[in-house]
Amino acid sequence: MSTHELAPSAIDASTSHGVPVRTGTGVDHVSAPYDALLLASFGGPEGQDDVIPFLRNVTRGRGIPDERLEEVSTHYRALGGVSPINQQNRALKAALEAELAARGIDLPVLWGNRNWAPYTTDVLRSAHAEGRRVVLGLATSAYSSYSGCRQYREDFGIALAELATDGVDDLRIDKLRHYFNLEGFLAPVLDGVIAGVRRLLADGVAAEDIVVMYSTHSVPDTMGDASGPEDTRVPGSGGWYVAQHQAANDWVHSRVEAEFGLRLASQFVFQSRSGNPRQPWLEPDINDAIEAAAEAGCKGVVCVPIGFVSDHVEVIWDLDTEAAETAAELGLAFVRTPTAGTDPRFVSALVDLVEERLGRRGPVETVTSFPATPDVCGVACCVGAKLRPTVAGADSAADCRS
To answer: Is domain 183-336 annotated with CATH 3.40.50.1400?
Structure first.
């Protein structure tokens, strides 16, 4: 697998929310005769018997005993041991196939997971046996971070290294750039926020008593600060991870306020933290934010999972269950808005990116203050607390739910 890195001087620097960003790709888009599109995701159990084996996969190398894994399995157990993410990926795969066919693009869509079947290595082995040689990777994560981007590159590298031991040394994988700043991703989010605010207003909650909370997965402070290329880092800023989310939040919220012709309170919040409690993670936690909002006189919360592509466990449990319960206990009205999922606008935007890489169209327009990220990652991009090689078996610092 290619591990080329973009030199810092190759593109102009700017700033977004105090963090340097790049104002153009600065390099020609990578173009190759791709013969498959790989939808790459986290994976999840398909039944109660799968839960502990799945969690062993997620935590492999950490030495966590099964007794501890049982303690953290309750969210899956409450859902019958089935993670919604697998069916959501099947639906997204089918939607991508239909959109590609509608545009006359003969590109099969594969689906491979990091932690459960179908595993990425197995999928790529089958693809190679079918004659596929140059694959385009699409991760189910919209933003820059170690667990949201670089680890997928590592997954690809690990798979290629394993296949190489079997004599498969002519397979290549390129990864699509981030899509947090595409209108097709954000427009469904915007529609959901407008509907959520409208619902609270119809229920008698005054506009000045509503707060819109834009939520994403918390990560360790060190991972946030290290998101983005090395030359863009600002300690304590949350890096590209925070800046990209804030830019997406701003784009959506400004249009919500324009829709209603009034000012609405908003807050960027985090959820689903896990790991060592002594390690600082991005805050505030959404439950703490809801409590603070209630103390300040808020009467209604519109919860927006803008950091997520689909309604998987972090959304269903951490928001629909825990955050909703926190709001109910405090007497606050609570509305959770949908994720982009398989909205036709989102699927269309993803296929636009595919066409961009196929050379069938020019660069896909971005809509936020944070511009398009390069096709090729910058120097030491999204390495986390310490530099990790692109081909390495590193576990995720994010939660083990998906």
So the answer is: yes
